[in-house]
Please model this.
Amino acid sequence: MSRSDSPAAADPGSMHDPDPLAHVDPNKTLDMEATGSVLEDPGQILNIDAVIVPGTETHTTTIRNQPSSRFELRTEVGRGGMGEVHSCADIHLGRDVVAKILHEKYCRRPEVIARFREEIRITGQLEHPGVVPVYEAGVMPDGRPFFVMQRVWGLTLRKTLDERPNPGEGRSRMLKVFEQICHTIAYAHTQRIIHRDLNPSNIMVGLFGQVKVMDWGLAKSLDEGNRTRVITLLGELDTADPDGSDPGDSGVHTQVGSIMGTPAYMPPEQAKGEIDHLDERCDVFGLGAILCEILTGQPPYVAPTAKRTLQLAIQSNPEDAFSRLDNCHADHDLVSLAKACLAPDPAHRPRDAGVVMDRLTHYFDMVLRQAEWDLGRFFDLSLDLFCIAGFDGRFRRVNENFSRVLGYSMAELTADPFIVFVHPDDRDRTAAMMARLREALPVRDFRNRYLDHNGKYRWFEWTAKSIPKDDVIFAVAREVTKEVALEERLKELEAWAAAHG
Model:
């Protein structure tokens, strides 16, 4: 492997630096052990000298030889505290994938290698649509472990949130993204895995709506002890310059040590370095922090530097975040859920992501019921004939005015295709209007005749719009039988007048 001409980043975790946080971008995850070097050798083949195989119940790691040249290494597309991410070509299957490779300078750091392999093991074992699948894992010729995984085309939630003109814009879509994040973390919690670094930069929103929770590098199995050596930084924080040194640092990127995670989204117990006491509720706090930003436009802790952001997390005063939540004009149940997740005391938070998911599902169900009730009220109070239909040619829902005008029950109106009620002479024109709606073209002032319960035909004038991808048509009609009769009578009089000069 060859390096690019770009210089390697300075290691902010050096113990010779009197203030390790002073030069850290607070928007990144705290990683006091690893920052990363530059690796770029497009076109190299990943010769897999050894494949990492998940271990037994004790989670030991075994190695077996399996030479391969399946993946062609291309350009670097990202990097984290421990690894570099490169685009790759899967030569066998002809698809784009990505490879995450341990930074070169850590190839002789057993504790970092162990942590990287733990990321591979955990990511590979979490078989869920919200976690990228691992296709292969192994060791580079220079001894660095790597793993190959699915490439997700899309944007990070970080970028998506930043592009909103205001927090209210696209809120319902962001809540759907949040719902999928909760599903994924709820699954991880059932597997006794905690992520420990939930933040918008670690969430990918795919081009087709898929949502992936990324970067399980700080993840931990609650069924085993913490095997990663960490560096305690609390002493340095206590004596460091309280003003910080980099006004561009705001604490929203990942950093690792005994203090590990992303300060702006970090629960107080994690900010204090109490890693042995972390459980599912640290992720619950992270979920609440993401929800807080979705609703208010900002994470719970906002400060100009990483150090100050971390200090806010340690002090665990949520008043500013709670005030912003109270004034964000979101539904009370969402605000209440965010506040519960952000409780400083873990005992006062929901027990795990499954509980958060249940509360969110209850909220969505409540909103749906309210929308159905409002629609029902709108249907019932309108003097026009409202209906929802499908492209199968059947009414799905009609208001009471249909029964009032035509004399059929609701069950009769929805039992058969509506073309049954249309006058035979009007059926071809009605079918032509349906074809327009299938093309998402609106229909206005279309008239046809419907048979009523007494065997008489009544004229309706329709306005309709459709959403073809949802197989739904919304239509409103008014009865114009008397108008049509008057129009026909007027034509007769005009014709008589023309004939008699």
Notes: The chain has three domains: 64-151, 153-221+262-378, 382-489. The domain at 64-151 is CATH 3.30.200.20 (Phosphorylase Kinase; domain 1). Residues 42 and 306 are 35 Å apart (CA to CA). Residues 1-24, 31-45, 47-67, 226-249 have pLDDT under 50 and may be disordered.
